[in-house]
Structures are given as structure tokens and as C-alpha cells.
Specification:
5-stranded antiparallel beta sheet; single chain; alpha+beta; 4-stranded mixed beta sheet
Amino acid sequence: MRLSSIPQLYRNMNRGTEIFTVLSRYGLADWIHQFNLDFAKGILKAKDGELLSKYSREARIRMAISDLGPTYIKLGQILSTRPDIVGVELADELKKLQADVPADSFHIVKTTLESELCQPIESIFARFDEVPIASASIGQVHLAELLDGKTVVVKVQHADIEKKVNEDLDILAGFASMAERLPEFAPYHPTTTVAEFQRALRRELDYGREERNMLQFAAQFSEDETVLIPAVYSEYCTSRVLTMEYVEGVKMSQRAALLEMGVNLPEVARRGAELYVQMIFDLGFYHADPHPGNILILPGDVIGLLDFGMVGRIDDRLREEMEDLLVGLTSSDADMLSSVIMRWGSLPKELDENSLRREVADFINDYANRPLEKMNFGEVINDMFKIIRSYHIALPPQVAMLLKTMVMLDGTGRLLDPEFNLVGLLQKHRRRIMMKRFSPMRRIRKWTRFYREVERLAEIAPRRFSDMLEQIRTGKFDVHLDLRMLGPTVNRLVTGIIASSLFLGSSLMLSMKVPPLLFHQRTHVAQSYDPVKEVTDKAAENAESAIKTVVGEDAAYMGMRDISIVGMSGIIISFGISLRLLLAINKSGHLDRTE
């Protein structure tokens, strides 16, 4: 691991240590739970004093994210829309995340307002409630009254929230860089996921973007009296302050109050779903957070939409893919559905397409025989997410957001009317959706895009072809090959050659007893000779043998003697290199399996 890949952790050491401590505590609780260590289960406790070991793994992850603060709560809320990455169970658990952030004092809020709007607060508002009606991770909401008597809602960002968010994002990028190198996290592209989260959160930090979203929705539904978009007072809006009309209604989550108000719940559920079908398939611009708290019902069964910080945009190409998905689901066409999934997603190199098609076919057959009125759209999409995740297919962010929005819409509709069925409504609209797909205007736009691409290709192709011919003529034409996965293969080959060479060289040094030697045999000789004495040749030979007497010899160790230390060291090192090479090959899964 290169230190340059995680400089954020060093720049923000205090916050990084705090995050590491929280993750360690909940990670240790998960380890204790997995190994069923009863004696250790009472050690770790949550903030409320409950034993962490009592909670599921998904609940512990949610609690850890909640302890880490607003930035990570936002991350969890965004990941709740990505079951293709975190899984359906964890995504459902992360939906429970709520940012319980203490509100700033009125003095701080007043300072922010006057700094952003460049005038005293008294010159703008006749009344401004000092106590906020809500405080979320990014900002807090106050009721106020303009000088002309209109009641408004003012969203004000928390002080220094941008600095805190940027610090957490830097640390998160460092953790993602490390996770990218771990085999168990690599298929889910943590660096890409964090980059997507950074873009989404930085967009939410800009209230000017939410203001523009509200103005666009208001323009699109200006003629529809059954839909209300709060008016925006742009003269009192900045990147950190958003002033909008106060809308008084009953939230969809308050079913009893809606019944008391005399609302036709099935009709409102149907019109709300059709409103989203219109936004998605006709306008290509939709409200992406349709949970019950963001939808109000006003007198006359008027539907009011709140909170436009999260919106989705789809172009004609994505809309056509979504139409193919719905056709595949509603007509039980497994081939079309699997083709859409493979066109949409980022596919792993080892993807078994035939296996994926068979599993999608089984998935379609499971729902094909069910009555339409008993088919739950949320259940269908979640089962599809499970298949996508099991094959390590990563969907584009806009696709995951769109599918999760429709799942959320299905749940909100069922909250109003238990008999609500989004699949049936989509099937009724299928013919209209497909006819619109082949409408003259859509065909004209598609052929216009195609013509522009061909025109651009026609403009640049002759010049590029001429440049290539000139390079060939002058001998400057080079072909650069990018052979994927060749680097590790060459490295292993070179490592194997080095290990083999080291083993052979060391073996030769052992056989030739290259010093220094281990267990070396040493012989001590005592000699005595009288040169005066004359003896015969035979006696002289006997005398020469007699004067050499062995008086001491070192014993060998386990039969080994005269071992070359350098040679033995080389053999041990070569065995170590060979073992590491075999483990690396085995870990990659290509030890004895053919491609």
C-alpha cells in the first residue's frame, strides 16, 4: 500500500482516528457474533446500553453509520438506493437512518442569513421563528413571514457544514482507495461508489440547485391543478439559504388524518403513480424521493411534492432501456430482460452469460404464473437486484436511482391503498409507452443524434486516415498493445525463473562445498621422525604411516558435514519464493483450471 494513496487519512488524523474507533467497535461486535463467543458478548454496548451482539449485522452497520455523523448518514441514505451494491437486506436497513442533528442557535442562523442575503433580517421578514421546525444533516428549517404577510419556509445550512463534509469526504476517499485493493470489496468498485456519493452530497450542499429544480417542476406542472409545487422566492435564495412557499397539508404517512379529511385514498394512490409515470417516461425529469413524508395531500385531493434536493434525469436512450425492462417484466420475456441487464451494468470479466440468462428465466417463471393483482413491484425489483448483485454487476447510478424510486413509489401507494398495484398500472400504460417510443418526434430526435454522430465521423475520418498514411510512409507508425493481465503473468514467470536459477546455483555450491562451511571435518596430526635412523624402503613407508596419528575429529550433525552456508541459504530462499508463487497462483483461482 503506497502512502500516497491515502494522504487524506494523514491530513485529518483526529477525525480519521475517531472513525477508525467506531468502525473497530462495531466490527469487533460482528466478529464476536459470527464466532458465537458467549463470554465476550456482554463487552460491547450501543449508546443506549443495549448489547451490540443482539443486533443483526445490517443493524450494526446502520448504528455505526449513525454514530459517525451527518456525512456518513447521508452516505447510508444514498447507499439505501443501491441494493445492487450493498444487497437488498442492508439497503432496507439503511432506509431507517435519520439524521438527528442539533440545531444551530438563532444567533448563528441570523448571522448566516444576513451574510448570505446581504441585508438585516428585519428588512426581509416580519416574523422569523427562532426555534426550527426540523434540523437535518445539511441544514435546518424555520417558519417565517415576509413583509407582505406571506408565510414561508426558510432552509438554512448549518455553520461550517461544508468544511466538515469535505473533511469526511477526504477520509472516505482514503478508505475507498484501501478497500479497492481488497479482493472482497473490489467487485463493488468502492472508489467509483464514493466518487458518486461525493458528487451527490456536494450537489445537496448547493441550495441553488434545489431552487432550479423547483422552478423547473413548477413550470412543467403550471397547467395541472391537481399537482402543487411550492413557489420559490428567488430574491431570498442563495447557495446556503432557500426560501419557499409554506404548504399546509397532510402527509401521506398520516393515513388516519387523510381518512378523516375525506380523501379518496385509492384514487390519490393511482394519480400519484400516474404522475410519476408521466415524469419518468414523458418528461425525463422526476422527483427521486417519493417517501410518504415528502408527499402532501391538500384539500381537493391535490398532491403536493416537497424536498427537491434529490431528482433524477433520464435521456431518450435510458428511457428506451427502461421501457425494454418494463416490457420484459410485464410480458415475461427473459431474453429481453437479461439483455437489458447486461447492456446497463458494468460486467465482471468472468461473467457467465448463459448462467445469468438461465437465472433470469427462472426469475421470470416464478412470477409468470402469479395473478397480476397479487404481484408486488417492490418484491419483483428487489429479487432482480439480488440476481444482479450475485453476479457482481454494478448498475449505473441513474438506473439504480430510477428503479429504487419506483420501488419507493410502490410502497407509498400501498400505504394509501393496500390493493394498489404498480405492475398492473404499468401494464395498462405499456401500449402508450411503446407507442410514444415509436412516435415521429422520438424517431426524429434519434435519427438526428445518429446523423450528427455520422457527420462528425465523416469530418474527422479523412484527416485521421491521412495522418495514419503519412506516419506509415515516414516509418513513424506504431502499434501499441494493451495486453490485460499480462503484467502479473510476466511477473510470475520471471519470479519462477529466478527461483529455479537460485535453486540450481545453490545446489552447485552445496555439491562443491563452497566455503564458509557448516559442520566442517577437522583432523589434528601429531608427528615424530628421527632422521638419523636408517630404515629400508618398507620400514620408511611404515614409519611414515606411523607418524600420522589421528588424535581428534569433530562429529557430524545428523549425518551432515561440510555444508556450504551460502548454498543452503540460497536453497531456502528459492523454496520460499516458490511457495509464495504457488500461493499467489492458487489465490487467483488459476492453478489447475483451464480458461
